[in-house]
Design a protein that fits this description.
This protein has one domain: Aminopeptidase. Strands 1-2-3-4-5-7-6 form a seven-stranded mixed β-sheet, with helices on both faces. It is α+β, with helices and mostly antiparallel strands. The longest helix is centred in the first third of the chain and has 16 residues. It is globular.
Length: 165
């Protein structure tokens, strides 16, 4: 009965006013479900560094999703703060695909991420989008409740040629 609504994606900032309600909703969900809200993700955010990528998704002008990539190690970015206000609308997939494209443009060869083992929806989502379980990294080493994933980014002709937009 409903018709598909186009999702618009734009580069933004985690400090943007429209991003705050989304990040707050994500933190509330994570805190209620898993006891930790993940708010520390942007404490070292470098707004003027192109390796730090934050996307905002909109449908009919409404901010409905977000996601970020930050540098983790040489050539490796970490996906953070993925959130879709409405489930099963393609928002998360659109954000993730655009994050991957922007990450390639920024010079990342791989993306890693962590979610909770108990967050079965997120685990399924990342597997469905080509991510594979990988050993825990960084502060997640030794945490049995963490599920870490990674994906190699393939350099495409689009990523190697300059953009004309």
């Amino acid at each position: 009965m409903s018709t598909a609504t186009a999702i618009q994606l734009e580069v933004s900032s985690p400090q943007a006013a429209e991003a705050q309600p989304l990040l707050d909703a994500l933190s509330e969900q994570l805190g209620a479900r898993f006891g930790s809200d993940g708010r520390a993700s942007f404490t070292e955010w470098q707004a003027n560094d192109p390796r730090y990528i934050f996307l905002l998704a909109r449908m009919e002008g409404e901010a409905v999703g977000c996601g970020a990539v930050r540098p983790l190690a040489a050539g490796i970015g970490e996906v953070k703060r993925m959130f879709a206000k409405y489930s099963r609308q393609g928002i998360g997939e659109a954000v993730l695909q655009q994050l991957e494209a922007k990450a390639q443009q920024a010079g990342y060869a791989e993306l890693w991420l962590e979610t909770r083992v108990a967050n079965t929806e997120a685990c399924r989502f990342y597997l469905k989008n080509g991510y594979q379980r990988r050993p825990s990294y960084g502060r997640y080493v030794g945490r049995d409740n963490s599920a870490c994933f990674g994906k190699h980014l393939l350099l495409s002709d689009a990523a190697e040629s300059p953009s004309h937009d």
